[in-house]
Request: fold
Amino acid sequence: MTYRCYNQVVEKVFGNKLAKILTKVGIILTKSGAEVHRVEDTMERICKAYGASVIDAYVTPTLLIISFSFKDQSELYHNIKRVYYSSYDLFKIDKINSLSREVCSKPIDLDLFDELLDKIDNEKGYSTWMLCLAGALCAFGFAFFYKGDLYDALVAIPVGFCTKLLTSLLEKIEFPVFFKHLLSGAFLTALSIVLATIFKVDRDIVIIASIMLLVPGLAITNAIRDSVSGDLVSGITRAIEAIFIAIAIALGSGIVLSLLGGM
Amino acid sequence: MFEGLMTFFASLGFGIIFDLRGTKLLVAALNGMIGGVVYNVLLTNNSSTLSLFVASVVISIISGIMARILKCPTTTFLIAALIPLVPGGQMYYTVLDIINNDITAAVNDGLKTVVDACSIVIGCVFISGLELALNSLQRRYLNKHF
Reply:
């Protein structure tokens, strides 16, 4: 009898720990911009690998729910987590993906698993300057893509650099998404108009080349993939997010264009 | 063709922004370049809607295959490659028309933006759906995950 009690306590501790770790996995994946189907699937697979049954995972871009129990025992374990801020990072998704593959084929100790998750979560991405250079590279490429010449592309470089710098800074202070895009759109349009007037190049191409940096590509792609795999709630949520961002960019650049349009 | 090749830099930049590294970054950028070339070559004889559709189908197929080969999520290669095709230029011209108070042109450009965006989406949906179907067939008959 005592032995059975002891066993139950151990199981309870284990179950609670597992539930916490599963939501941690889910939060890292959701924040990094994984599709809902992938998050649910990863959580369920890990759960199964640790011997749980009757697993239910429900994920939306803002909420995670996991519920499971172990065989021939009626005790249920749950965890609910609210997801707040998202910063897109495909590298983390990839890392978690390979970690969960490893864990599913050979379950490791939960404390070790937790440590590995923390390590992935705290991993530093590219530095801000590298991101800004990437922004400059994007603007350079897009200027040619939209049929500009070398001079347009050269003027687009500083605009792309400064736009990415502004968005990274706003991201760091967790500025509201709508105003972040509005402000960035307004800023890049003003800078493009000024630089295009000074260097006498086509201002439309410079603006378009740098506006592409703000386009909500990840939200659109995820909206499509979520809707196709049947997660309609998050599909719609992400589509609305994309539309909102597009409106914010249009509003920001529209305001500046109508103020400085005559220049 | 030259415009298409320049998409490489745009996709490379987006790969860095979304924190891709090493081989995966290079594959994503090359994928974007292939999409850009397909789009630009088709654009000479066809409408932009059809060109975008075909380019998005090609990009989705390549990402699906590369994801299986390198054992990582499909979105890794899809996003950086797909973004250059998004009709940001059309969107900008729509805003410009609204500001110039030219509503007819604004409706024209706005509708074109929506149609172009939809053609990318449909191309992507088509291949994502196919991928899911193949996955379930594989699971059913080969009894193997992924």
